[in-house]
Amino acid sequence: MSNHADIWAAPLLAAGILAVGAYTVAVIHLAVGGWLAQARPGVGLLLQPARSAAVLMAQPATATERPDRAMAALSPALYAALAAVAVTVVPWSRSFSIADVETGIVLWGTAEALVIVAMFLHGWSSNSHQPLLAAYRFVAAGVSYLLLSMFVLIAAAIPAESLQLSRIVESQAGLWNVVRQPLGLPLFVVVALGSATWGPLDLADGSDVSGGTAAEASGIPGLVWMWARAAMLAAFAAMSAAVFLGGWHGPVLPGPAWMAVKTVAMITVLSAAGHLLARVPAERFVTWAWVVLLPLGFADLAIAGLGSLR
Amino acid sequence: MTVDLAFWVFGLGAVTTGWRVFRTASMVRATFLLLASFLNVGAIILLLGGAYLGVALLFMMTVEMAVMAIFMVAFMMNPAGLNPMTMVHQPRLAAAAGWVAFVAGAVMAGRGNFPERPLPGGRPVIADLGAELMGRSMLIFETAGVALVATMIGAVVLSSRRSRFGDEAGDEGSLPPALDPDTGSYPPGVIPEGVGSGHDHHGGHG
Amino acid sequence: MRALAPALAAFAGVFAVALAATVWPGAKAPLPPWPARAPWLGGGTPETHAWSRFHARYYPLTLVFVAFEMEMMFMYPWAVVYVREGVTALADMGVFLALLSLGVLYAWRERALRWQ
Amino acid sequence: MTVLRRLAQDAPAPVFVARGGGAGLLPVELQADPRLRMVGSARHATVLLAAGRFAGAMGDALDRVHDQLPSTGAVVWWTADPDAARPPSLAEATVFGGPDPVEAVLAAHRRAVSQPGARRAVLADEPPHPFEGRGDHGQGGEGMMGGVPFGRAMAMTADDRDGLALDQLPLQLGPFLLGLPNGVRVSAVLQGGVVQEAELEGLDLGEGRALAGADATGARADLRWLAEALRLGGLDALARRAARLARAGATDAAACARVAKLVRRSGLPAAWSKVGVVEGEDARSRLERRLRFDPRAGGRRPLPADRIGRALAGQDWSDALVTIWSFASVGERAPAAAAP
């Protein structure tokens, strides 16, 4: 059961899914924010991300005094491309993923690790102080949450006896992982918020460092970066839906529809977490991740292991 | 055909980025060019059918180069190469050694007599690896665990000044490295109390 | 490998488009004047370049992480054969993780997880 | 192209607000308006809204911010004394004297995205230090670490608490940074994101009339303070809610209590605990005091700037900002201006 898209169709499919996903993230983010701010958002909300994107497209790109131009151009592109490669391994139905790789969750982990590199380069390349501080503190958080991601995905692989995403979804036919391994999803949400540098883990682009690695970005480079962040969050929402919420399994509706519904639900959860939780100071997050969350990751693995003993 | 083409693309990519490592003045660029080189090598391993090994290489190298960048920038003078400089010491010797190694490797690869036992496609390589780790190689695997704990403890002991005895107690009793290990001379201003002064030693309490 | 090709193609395609979008609009524009290019400090000024021998406050942590991550690479194949191997695999990994927790516990007790 | 412009015109205007003399925390309330979007860096804005008076060093800082606004951006000056002397950056600004500048900002935004005439920089187009053609390679540097490559010196090493001697970054931050009270600038030496030494400077906010509504007391003042604190903590939606309540006059005690509850649940108090401990009191307890919206609790003696400056040493930069903001007095005379 290995299915994959045509090599020429793959980029278009990945970019299409991400474009829809990123726009959905933006709309839901505004809707939840408006609701929380009691601002009664109207239907104009649906166009608002396009409008804000148009502002950036009308704006010239700025430069700093002595940037590393190549790295400054490469890092947003790398980040966007990592969201694309991540979304390719997500299965949308029993018979369709863009690339149902045998080593799916390892490839996913590689993309997460490269996100840390992209983020660091984005902050480094402008040769500006606040982006640099933000990039370094992000790396501290990154090396702390990356292990959690590995633990929860490996735990999901145990009952599936495979690292392949389609098999992991298949293994949830009876019982979804969110029930079978209850610690997995909350820990994976931490990883999602970190990788998209969102809400409580917005350490790379936080307001306390004037927008962090993006503090110097305006115009289209800024837009590409913002898009990539939203796309990354969408990719993580889809991955959570596949690995923990049973993927395409569900009554009545066809598989892809269930995936869409679950992805949107996850985007709402992530967005609400972003709006309701304050940014965690990097130093405390690091201690917390190693001393509290990592043992929870062990426990998740133990639960998965004990549950899979025959 | 496609695989051949991909091999050449990744091969050239690996060599070019590897070469550029030594032609840049920025530590960050050097580190991530090296990463790019490793990623290309990982892709070649994937082409060779190492489904798990290839992706594992991509993963490990990414993480390790990210950590290396932090240390390179921290400890190297002029880490961004704002003033032009060269990354190589003893350039002639290095170039000669590099070429010798490259030619030797290329000759071995091209002229060597390798056994031809292609594995049947579709073998579950990852499960085989797992079975190996749980079977014959279990001792090796557990030994690696002990070695990694020793690595962690060693890394903490060597790098952290904070300790359970206090925030600056990590260097309790330790001395800065001597400039010249034979004569035991220290750079000016860092001669610790009780060293070379002939008095009784107090240790270095901060 | 055949399944990896679309993933690689998606990477390359999105990378190329995003790179072109970032680079192309500014390619012909003249460089903004010097004051427009000063680092953003909310009206403040720096004395030096930001690029420096940056004191990452968490360096012991990164070393612990590298060691830990190396061990994690064993766990992927382990997970695949877990159901087949049963209690052996559970015990094996239990010992392994117990060992590594010792490393993390030690790092925590020595306060190596805090900013140096 | 016209579609793009029409879309951009109707977008929420990304505005960077610089608070000057006589503005108090009144501009914080602007985020209540959904047609505006407050941004943290002038590079993200189409409109620079300068609120209040900008004299001396404040004017110089505004000039720098003005030049960092993308060249298509527009400038609006919100002032009670339109005839007062103004820094060069405000020479061509749209002047607005009324109580609510939102319409003026929106008009400036529409102008900026539809007919982007390049705004001229007001500072001289020259590098911080002349470097071209100097040094061994013509980029102003000497040897490995010397000279002024590309116009700036390189950072130099200094001892630090963990025994390493890595580079120090000496810089001045503000006065227009999120979390800095009006007219406060920080001269800090950072090493690896940790403050080694810091000094708070109170810049001259000038004399003259204050903006209508700049002075606020009681719950409204606390809500203004809270709105900025929440933005600093990454809670933009809650910050907008607090700003809306402040704008409505802070009369709804139950609504204020609900905001306080949401803030307590957000983890912000936990993030602020043990930060900026001065006289046995941390930023968390200062936050908690504000969250009670108790008019009698206000009016505590502002702390001298040098005490705050000393409290910053050893903190992470983001914690340092939290510390400074936790001491911000809501009135005009920010902590830095208080006599020791």
Keywords:
heterotetramer; C: about 120 residues; Methane Monooxygenase Hydroxylase, Chain G, domain 1; about 0% strand; flat; D: about 350 residues; alpha/beta; Rossmann fold; 2 domains; 12 strands; globular; disordered C terminus
Task: Please explain how this structure is put together.
- The complex is a heterotetramer of chains A (310), B (206), C (116) and D (340).
- Chain A contains eleven helices and two strands.
- By secondary structure, chain A is mainly alpha-helical.
- A two-stranded antiparallel sheet of chain A has the order 1-2.
- Chain B is mostly helical.
- Chain B has a domain at 1-91.
- Helix content of chain B is 57%, strand content 0%.
- Chain B contains six helices and no strands.
- Chain C has helices at 4-27, 59-85, 87-109.
- Chain C is mainly α and 116 residues long.
- The model of chain C has no long low-confidence stretch (mean pLDDT 91).
- Chain D has 340 residues and is α/β, with parallel strands linked by helices.
- Chain D has helices spanning 2-10, 56-68, 102-114, 218-232, 236-247, 253-265, 268-272, 283-291, 305-312, 317-327, and strands at 13-19, 36-38, 47-51, 74-78, 94-96, 141-142, 146-147, 157-159, 165-167, 169-173, 184-191, 194-202.
- In chain D, strand 11 (184-191) and strand 12 (194-202) form a beta hairpin.
- Residues 332-340 of chain D have low confidence and may be disordered.
- Chain B binds chain D through residues 74-75, 77-78, 82-85, 160-162, 167-168, 171, and chain D through 135-137, 139, 141-147, 149-150, 154, 161-164, 166.
